[in-house]
Write a structure and sequence with these properties.
about 260 residues, mainly alpha, Four Helix Bundle (Hemerythrin (Met), subunit A), two-stranded antiparallel sheet
């Protein structure tokens, strides 16, 4: 009888290992983000970008896996936010600073731009965490408020990616250009601009094959020309922002009557 009671107590004080999987993925993303910074310190820009892209991929997986396994928690959500801040707020800012903003003639201003980017990333995450708990209209469910920090971090690194593809184009490496560009992305993250969210987009059965074919083609391009492909995706995303603003306010107007 005592053995059964002890087993029941042990069972109550434990939980299945699979509940840890989303948090393990989050910690793995954090490890890759920190490694990206280390590679930046070593001047190995390609490796730095590679590790940050892996971190972004894992960041997109942890929440979805948590919801799929039905193991979402406040602890996991807070851990994810802290990891996102390091991976896509701090890491891109430091990498761009080490790459070009730290040049002697603009060093202080360059550091200021990097700090502002990280601060705006933190503000974006804080607003996102509050927004999750607040009620949204059916239209708002299809949009983010501001550029998500993960996308912002990748956008910030687009000039570095472009320079790897076209090393002879000098203006891409100019600290003045990168400082202004980094600040633009920072303010886009902390702004209230509505941007498209793919979380609630549904694909009709008739278009499944087409979507899969497009994703397959995208994967091939990422393998063959990874940096150029990501830069094009970044450009398409930037173009989508004014479109998302127009669509958002049009739908809000229709919803209100």
């Amino acid at each position: 009888m005592e053995e059964k009671t002890l087993k029941k107590k042990e069972f109550k004080n434990s939980f299945p290992f699979y509940r840890l999987i989303p948090n393990i993925i989050t910690l793995a993303a954090l490890c890759f983000g920190l490694t990206a910074i280390k590679c930046g310190l070593d001047g190995n820009w390609e490796k730095s970008l590679f590790f940050l892209i892996i971190s972004a991929f894992l960041d997109g997986m942890d929440g979805r896996i948590a919801r799929y396994l039905n193991v979402t928690s406040d602890y996991g959500a807070n851990l994810d936010s802290l990891a996102d801040f390091v991976d896509f707020g701090v890491a891109p800012a430091l990498i761009i600073y080490m790459w070009t903003l730290g040049e002697s003639h603009i060093k202080s201003l360059g550091w200021g731009a990097a700090v502002i980017f990280a601060i705006c990333g933190a503000m974006r995450l804080a607003r996102f965490n509050i927004g999750i708990k607040s009620q949204k209209s059916s239209v708002q469910n299809f949009f983010f408020t501001g550029v998500p920090i993960t996308i912002g971090g990748i956008l910030a690194l687009a000039p570095l990616m472009l320079s790897l593809e076209f090393p002879t184009i000098n203006f891409i490496k100019r600290p003045e250009f990168n400082g202004i560009y980094l600040l633009a992305i920072a303010f886009a993250m902390s702004s209230k601009l509505p941007t498209f969210s793919i979380k609630h987009i549904r694909v009709s059965k008739e278009n499944v094959k087409l979507v899969l074919a497009m994703i397959g083609a995208l994967i091939v391009f990422l393998i063959v020309k990874p940096w150029m492909t990501i830069v094009i995706l970044c450009l398409l995303y930037i173009i989508s922002i004014p479109i998302s603003v127009v669509v958002f306010y049009k739908k809000i107007k229709q919803e209100q009557g």
